Amino acid sequence: MSSAHNGPVSILLLAGTAEARELADRLAAVQAMAERRMRVIASLAGATAKPSALGVETRIGGFGGKEGLVGFLREADIDVVVDATHPFAARITANAVDACMAAKIDYLRLERPAWQARPGDDWRSVATLAQAAALLPSGARVFLGIGRKEIATFAERGDVRFVMRMIDPPAAGARVPGGEIVLGRPCAHEGGEIALLRHHAITHVVAKNSGGLSGRAKIDAARTLALPVFMVDRPPSCGGHRVTSVAQAVRWIETWIASA
């Protein structure tokens, strides 16, 4: 744990997920009630063009790797980092763990549980998107539920047609697989995803095992339609304290503040 001090507690929240948004709201409430002053800074990587506002002070953009993050932690006098980034944001998480060790401050990882296969699911577990791309059968019509950043992995599969859903369009000059782009967020209900998959005559789904409620509907829809899902396993976890829910994160932070 960081050295005790009598000044305000400064928390850096690495955000970008639904859990981070909920945690920001909870921390804002704790901040308002805290006997001791507390500063919360949320950081968004800038993955989407128009992110929704968070309930706390927010910065947007990267830090410049581990060294840049170490510099920010020291300049902003951060006491603890709460990493609530996406389960597949492996580089950000690794940099955060290393930066906290270098700066000698505490680190908490909030990571929602992974999805578990249910009866009727036809999951083909793969370690990487490249492995999924290689295993897709020729002539398949594939729904890519992986966002926009890594679709180039599938660009060489000219024998496969893709339906690619993403919030923002691909960057200019990006390699895009053959098929159709659907702009928008995942449907909240299975019925909407079933309609989408049927409309495009989808035969296979590629997804990352992100966990959580957002995105689960497409997995449920694939089960209902008896579609195989190439499910990309999560990257190995890094060190540090770990919790799996916002409630657990709030309790950990409150305990940390009380003992800081």
TrEMBL record:
Gene Ontology molecular function: precorrin-6A reductase activity
Pathway: Cofactor biosynthesis; adenosylcobalamin biosynthesis
Tree of life domain: Bacteria
Alphabetical keyword list: Cobalamin biosynthesis, Oxidoreductase
Gene Ontology biological-process entries: cobalamin biosynthetic process
The protein's name: Precorrin-6A reductase
Source organism of the structure: Breoghania corrubedonensis
